[in-house]
Amino acid sequence: MRALAAFAAMVLFAAGPLAARQPAQTPPGTQAGAGGPAIRITAPEDDTYVTGRVVLTAAVDPAGAAVERVSFFADGRLVCAVDKAPFTCPWDAGTGVKEHVIRAVAQLPGGGRAVTSIRTRGAGIAEAVEVHVVQVSVLVRDDKGAFVKGLEAKDFRLREDNVPQRLTHVANQDTPLEVVMALDISASMADAIADVRTSARTFISALRERDALTILGFNDNIFTVARRETQAETRLKALDRLAPWGATSLYDVISRGVGLLRLQAGRKGLVVFSDGEDESSRLSFDVVEKELQSSDAVMYAVGLGRGAKMANLTRQLSRLSDASGGRTVIAPDASQLSDAFRDVVDELSHQYVLSYAPTNDKRDGTWRALAVEVPGRDVRIRARQGYRATGTKP
Questions:
Q1: Which residues contact 93 (CB under 8 A, 6 or more apart)?
Q2: Could you give the angle at which helices 285-293 and 250-262 cross, rounded to 10 degrees?
Q3: pLDDT given for residue 10 in this prediction
Q4: Which of 102, 272, 101, 112 is nearest to 180 (CA)?
Q5: Tell me, what's the pLDDT at 131?
Q6: Measured between alpha carbons, how far is 29 from 73 in angstroms, rounded to an integer?
Q7: Are residues 225 and 78 in the same domain?
Q8: Residue 276's pLDDT is what?
Q9: From CA 317, how far away is CA 297, in angstroms rounded?
């Protein structure tokens, strides 16, 4: 059981806390001047539930039309203004499930405006206060292996235990990321720590300015190297202070990362790197597996050196990563780490996250199998295989 740590870089991620009942038609955009550009709100959808931190997004039709800025308003208050595409805006909808009016205003050259709005749904007296949302990470490639971009909710078909589900939202690469990176700095990393620092810089540099990142270090203990509010330059300098010592608590740091990400909204990612066997965790592999299955997580495992040669360890990591919609990446030599981390970043940046409110809303702890398709397209799909339906609802 404790043989799982011989390496692992994992990335868990999910996106957008949206759920919906029957959506009403989104009001059409209006504009000053016949034939001018129109604007539409693409997330959240009209008549959907929203709570906590969400990302407001809008699109201008026709695509590429000249727009000076797009301003987002929630309940009459300005949230933010964006002067170029993609038009996205983080917003905290607060606790509970309340009705909100979201408005997007596009300022056009020459003084004209295009305006549209949607209304989110509040939880009525007869409705459940807790809205259960399942989020499924999906990677789509064409027959040549290139990432397929631009897909929308209407392009996907999703089944839970072979029962069709209605998607309420699809998050794509325009949605910001919440990332936790956990780096193994146990004694076994002494010979590879320089390459690990270089590879971690590669990963950090590939993140966008609007993506949030927390860095954890772990050996016998788990400690914060850089908090999510830390500036990018400070994060990079913090890596230079890492020195290897002690044993490895891989399972514990996975649990810590999942816990940190559970407090955040949007697309989420946990990156954990290690080359040593788990020697000091309080938690077991089985406990961590259930935590991952109960989270909105996609996982990538990146193995280094001797860990790449341990067949049992590779099987365990693949069991975690494959079920989540991710995969295991192996770097037999430390010099290959940067390429491995680039692969992880590349896939993360091209993943979709599908959201839906399941027709089976029981929280009985059972495993629910998932299947995702893109009908009518010659594509290869890697998606989360299922989830464990835990929670407070009976």
A1: 50, 51, 52, 53, 54, 74, 100, 120
A2: 20
A3: 46
A4: 272
A5: 53
A6: 15
A7: no
A8: 66
A9: 14
Question: Which residue has tokens 């406990």?
Answer: 287
For the chain, 394 residues long, the average pLDDT of each consecutive 10-residue run is: 44 41 38 68 84 84 90 91 89 80 91 90 53 84 94 94 92 80 87 85 83 89 87 84 87 87 76 79 92 86 73 80 85 80 85 90 91 96 92 54
Contact of 295 with 258, CB cutoff 8 Å: yes
Tokens read off for 36: 């001018």
Q: Bridge partners of 301?
A: 328
> Phi-psi category of 285—alpha, beta or left, where left has phi over 0 and alpha has psi -120 to 50?
alpha
Residue 193: domain span: 1-17+133-394
134: left (phi over 0), alpha (psi -120 to 50) or beta: beta
Please indicate, yes or no, whether residues 43 and 89 belong to a single structural domain of this protein: yes
- Residues 52 and 179 occupy one common structural domain: no
CATH assignment of the domain containing 72: 2.60.40.10
- Which two tokens mark 359? 């027709």
Cα dihedral across residues 80, 40, 355, 178: positive or negative: negative
In a domain, 220, yes or no: yes
> Considering only CA atoms, which of 330, 337, 340, 189 is closest in space to residue 250?
189
Q: Is the dihedral angle over the CA atoms 139, 228, 223, 337 positive or is it negative?
A: positive
Q: What angle do CA 377, 382, 384 make, to 5 degrees?
A: 125
Q: Token pair 């906590």 is at which residue?
A: 52
Phi-psi region of 210 (alpha: psi -120 to 50; beta: other; left: phi over 0): alpha
